[in-house]
Design goal:
Length: about 210
């Protein structure tokens, strides 16, 4: 086994920095909400401001403008939902739905034998969908995609329970705790599954081995 397998998985999320940046606007929302005397408007303004600043910094560092605009748009939408309902915990409602949808999509991709882990790694490494002609890689990607389903379900359960309880501060704390730390753990788990599933003589993720 070569280290390209681990490097390819690490490339999926664009590095730890991107995942860490995603947790800053929710943290800013909670801080603004607390400092503003439980004002949803102050929390929303804080989250949007931080989201814009993070987006600008990432663009200046060479990030993709479209992806960053999408992330800022999600922050704005989450803030809008909270402003419309007047409930601070509803700022996190969008994340609950997005994680539930992600879990369903990843699980469906495994059942349909188009595991999203393989799709993403194939695009990152430039091999596109050639990995599907390799039975060993297809099986490995299917098994290694389950940790991703698990991480999304874990977020849904934790965020959902805290949202029902109206625990705004804990939602902010767990939003940070279950962002990049959980993604790092998920990547490590997927890499371990890949290494355990692929035959010892397999050339690695960048070298699909089609069926003879």
């Amino acid at each position: 086994m070569t280290d390209t397998r681990q490097e390819s998985l690490a490339a999926l999320l664009g590095g730890r920095g991107g995942a860490l940046d995603a947790s800053l606007p929710p943290a800013a929302f909670v801080v603004g909400w607390l400092l503003g005397g439980h004002s949803v408007a102050v929390g929303a303004a804080s989250a949007v401001a931080v989201g814009v600043v993070v987006g600008v910094v990432r663009v200046l560092r060479g990030g993709r403008p479209r992806a960053l605009l999408a992330s800022v748009a999600l922050v704005v939408l989450a803030a809008y939902i909270a402003l419309q309902t007047g409930r601070a915990e509803d700022f996190f409602l969008l994340q609950i739905f997005l994680n539930a949808a992600s879990a369903l999509v990843w699980a469906a991709s495994i059942v349909l034998r188009w595991p999203l882990l393989g799709v993403v790694v194939g695009l990152v490494t430039g091999q596109k969908f050639r990995w599907r002609r390799d039975p060993d890689l297809l099986r490995a990607y299917r098994y290694a995609s389950w940790p991703w389903v698990g991480q999304y379900l874990l977020r849904v359960l934790v965020f959902g329970a805290l949202w029902l309880a109206g625990e705004v501060v804990l939602l902010g704390v767990m939003r940070v705790a279950l962002t990049w730390p959980l993604q790092v753990a998920c990547i490590a788990a997927s890499w371990w599954v890949l290494r355990r599933t692929l035959p010892s003589d397999h050339p690695g993720l960048r070298h699909p081995r089609p069926t003879p």
